[in-house]
Amino acid sequence: MQEIEKKVTYSIGQFATIVGLSAPTIRYYEREKLLNPHRDHADRRYFTKTDVSWVKFLLHLKGTGMSIQELKLYVKWRAQGDATIPNRLALLKETRNDFMEKYRQVQHHLQILNDKISWYEKKETGASHTEEPFGDYLTRIGHSE
Amino acid sequence: MQEIEKKVTYSIGQFATIVGLSAPTIRYYEREKLLNPHRDHADRRYFTKTDVSWVKFLLHLKGTGMSIQELKLYVKWRAQGDATIPNRLALLKETRNDFMEKYRQVQHHLQILNDKISWYEKKETGASHTEEPFGDYLTRIGHSE
DNA sequence: GATTGACTTAAAGTCCACTTTAAGTTGTAA
DNA sequence: TTACAACTTAAAGTGGACTTTAAGTCAATC
Fold this sequence. Notes:
Two copies of one chain form a homodimer.
Chain A lengths: L1 H4 L6 H8 L3 H9 L6 E2 L5 E2 L2 H15 L4 H12 L5 H42 L7 H8 L4
Antiparallel strand pairs in A: 1-2
Helix pairs in contact in A: 5-6
Chain A binds a DNA duplex through α3.
Protein name (chains A, B): Transcriptional regulator, MerR family
Keywords (chains A, B): DNA-binding
GO molecular function (chains A, B): DNA binding; DNA-binding transcription factor activity
């Protein structure tokens, strides 16, 4: 049963749909050496379930802020074997550090956005007599800046 | 005392430093009509504390995912007065919705990144006999995909 | 056997948010 | 009064991550 499953392959179009990218993007990733699909007798790419997992993993890394260049580096190191594990680990930890920093900032941005929405809602409801400036409002609720 | 405070002004260079942008970026924002600073007798821009608060607020919105185009729209509506409050509120709420969606995705990306780091750390420590593939590891800890 | 749709390539184009360049003006300090 | 830093403008350039174009190949269906 698993023997049968392992033979499943996808064309670039199918693969692109599965992973949520466009076919040109898949080709672009291949040019950047993030992927290297198999080729059939007519030189057409085909992809396996392993490729699906792999690109999904890359997209997770990308989603935490890694650039294409950093992904390339990671992929290069990976191809060089276990000796580069410290390099890869360092890269991932740095990525996580940068991510956490941005994450904190973004939470603050969200807080201000929420405050502004509340302020507008209050203004809409309270009609005319509610004329408190947004800056004062922020200070009052303890979110100055 | 507040009378004195109110007269504080900043040159574009000082202002840029305060808000954490470059002077050319400030000029760019002005071209995009997000800002409009005062001018002195020699046609040089000067900025007030109100401008500082305003650009900081814009940067909070930007930080939640609003594009320059969306900020321009917001600013345009703002200039049109209270009649556009519903428009602004709708824009901010849409921004928040999009933000929350991305936020959830990004949390998942982070989880996978963390898992990968743990997996490498385990591999580094456990040395040779720890040969569990990452996919299996994810499944085992309940973070498949 | 012709049409269709999905594939192939290399190269050029796009979008966003700035950044840099080039040429010139102004206020202060030596 | 000359040097210098900080400002002014319009326009061109940059970087990242794709996307589009153009010209062609191939396999399956009518």
